[in-house]
Specification:
With 507 residues, this protein is an alpha/beta fold. The chain contains 17 helices and 15 strands. It has 2 domains: 283 residues, HUPs (Rossmann fold, 3-Layer(aba) Sandwich), CATH 3.40.50.620; 147 residues, Isoleucyl-tRNA Synthetase, Domain 1, CATH 1.10.730.10. The chain binds 5'-O-[(L-methionyl)-sulphamoyl]adenosine (MSP).
Length: 507
């Protein structure tokens, strides 16, 4: 029986740059949520991919003497490789150059056109190629693009326009009636602010470039890259081809993205969907930017950090843990290697790693290497239940740092309990029942911790799971039952294993 449908997406990344920690952040957030929902038995579709049309890509390809498709083939593969390295469990990877996507884009364009929301006009505007967006004179900063601080280009073209201005009231009404449509709330307010400033129609076609999806009723034009890109989310679940599949997953879509593309997702996209007769996105989870040394990452600043460079030092789980536990989902955060090192050593090598190794060591040395019985009313039981509740509540709104923070509090509580109980002293005194009780409780706590942390640190979780003598992998377990106290079968054989998170020394 398939579970409840759950559909989660990352932005599709432009192929003009190699994957860096900013892209990885969104992708890990979506992956952790996908894995979390699978633990609940949901039928998860998890989509990521690459955005391959537009002037920016066309020019980048020309710069390298390649066709846009050759260029996109090469860079798209680097995103696939990065996600494989980071253990991303996406079920699909979409490229906007695929035939299935052309079909979906043309279907939606035609529906919006037939609804009377696309009209021909002349556009004169200042275009930032890096943003693939137009700006008004007032929006420029010293005549430069407000985001990239780069020169804009004056473009005069005959374009088709999407009548976004018609959707102001409908959008406001939608956001007023669905307070959870955008999380965190500050980002929802920002979106409402954009709409209240007034919406201008935007052009959805270009005649000056050819690298894009042809407009079905006028093939001199290709679709504006953003109009094409947003539709990827629909393409992947069969828009225009498989109505049943589309209707199953579209009402439960969750888009994960950063604030830079909030306007496109929170204003343009729901309006396009409304025009095409579809539901607006169920949920958008918007995070801030990762900065490096307080600066935006950019090719020109040479400060883009490749995930592989950090994985080499901290492992995949160390990488995943740091970004979601340390960075709050919403505000901007500054990346520093020193902070990553400190956090890794404190939370993973010390707190978690030590708990695992001391408990397994005691179990092997004092309890014959098998799981002693867990007490039904063990003193850590409440703490374990509280961690599960907090994680569940916080992940509802993508608050990973507080959610997993609660799991690390449980680890802290177990470490404190061991200090307080001094099982080694009791062992010396021959009080084996007391030792078995403390070790049993701690092993059970480790089981709960492993299960709850598994969406974030899947490799360490799988290793610890089998050391605890549990069959299969944590992802085979099902919530909420699996989180209930007492799931570790007494008598299972345990294994000490090596350090889960070896300490990392400063370079
Ligand atoms: N192709 C568009 C998205 C189309 S979605 C229909 C695009 N691509 S992008 O390659 O520029 O990726 C932007 C996204 O990458 C951000 O929204 C965010 O998810 C992620 N990030 C890129 N840099 C980032 C940081 N420095 N920090 C956090 N996330 C960042 O825009």
């Amino acid at each position: 029986m398939p579970g409840q449908p759950f559909f989660i997406t990352t932005p599709i990344y432009y192929v003009n740059a190699a994957p860096h920690i900013g892209h990885a952040y969104s992708t890990i957030a979506a992956d952790t949520m996908a894995r979390w929902r699978r633990l609940w038995g949901d039928d998860v579709v998890f989509l990521t991919g690459t955005d391959e049309h537009g002037l920016k890509i066309q020019r980048a390809a020309e710069g390298e003497g390649l066709t846009p498709l050759e260029f996109a083939d090469r860079v798209s593969q680097t995103f696939r490789d990065a996600w494989e390295l980071l253990d991303i469990s996406n079920t699909d990877f979409i490229r906007t150059t695929e035939p299935r996507h052309y079909l979906a884009v043309q279907t939606m364009l035609q529906r919006v056109y037939d609804a009377g929301d696309i009209e021909l006009g002349t556009y004169e505007g200042r275009y930032c190629v890096s943003c693939e967006a137009y700006y008004t004179e007032e929006e420029l900063v010293d005549g430069l693009c407000p985001i990239h601080l780069r020169p804009v280009e004056l473009v005069v073209e005959e374009n088709y326009f999407f009548r976004l201005s018609r959707f102001e009231d409908r959008l406001l009404e939608y956001y007023e009636n669905t307070p959870d449509a955008i999380v965190p709330p500050g980002k929802r307010n920002e979106a409402i602010g954009f709409i209240k400033q007034g919406l201008r129609d935007f052009s959805v076609s270009r005649t000056s470039i050819s690298w894009g999806v042809p407009i079905p009723w006028d093939e001199k034009h290709v679709s504006y890259v953003w109009f094409d890109a947003l539709i990827n989310y629909c393409t992947a679940i069969g828009y225009g081809t498989d109505v049943e599949q589309f209707n199953r997953y579209w009402p439960v879509v969750n888009h994960v993205l950063a604030k830079d593309i909030l306007r496109f997702h929170a204003v343009y996209w729901p309006a396009m969907l409304m025009s095409a007769g579809e539901l607006p996105p169920h949920r958008e989870a918007i995070h801030g930017f990762l900065l490096v040394g307080g600066e935006k990452m950019s090719k020109t600043a040479l400060n883009q950090i490749a995930p592989a460079d950090l994985v080499a030092d901290f492992g995949v789980d160390g990488f995943r843990y740091f970004f979601l536990a340390d960075q709050r989902f919403g505000p901007d955060g500054d990346f520093s290697y020193e902070a990553m090192l400190a956090r890794y050593n404190a939370d993973l090598a010390n707190n978690f790693g030590n708990l695992a190794s001391r408990v397994l060591n005691m179990a092997v040395n004092y309890c014959g290497g098998v799981v002693p019985a867990t007490r039904a009313d063990g003193p850590l039981r409440e703490a374990a239940a509280a961690a599960f509740t907090t994680l569940t509540v916080e992940l509802e709104s993508y608050n990973f740092s507080d959610g997993f923070g609660a799991v690390w509090e449980l680890i802290g509580a177990a470490n404190a309990y061991i200090e307080e109980q001094q099982p080694w002293a009791r062992q010396k005194a021959g009080d084996t029942d007391a030792v078995a009780a403390v070790v049993g409780d701690c092993l059970e706590t480790l089981r709960v911790v492993t299960l709850l942390a598994s969406p974030l640190i899947p490799n360490a979780a799988a290793a610890l799971w089998s050391r605890l003598g549990l069959p299969g992998r944590p992802e085979d377990a099902r919530l909420p039952d699996a989180a209930a106290w007492g799931g570790l079968p007494a008598g299972s054989p345990l294994e000490k294993g090596t350090a889960l998170f070896p300490r990392v020394d400063a370079p």
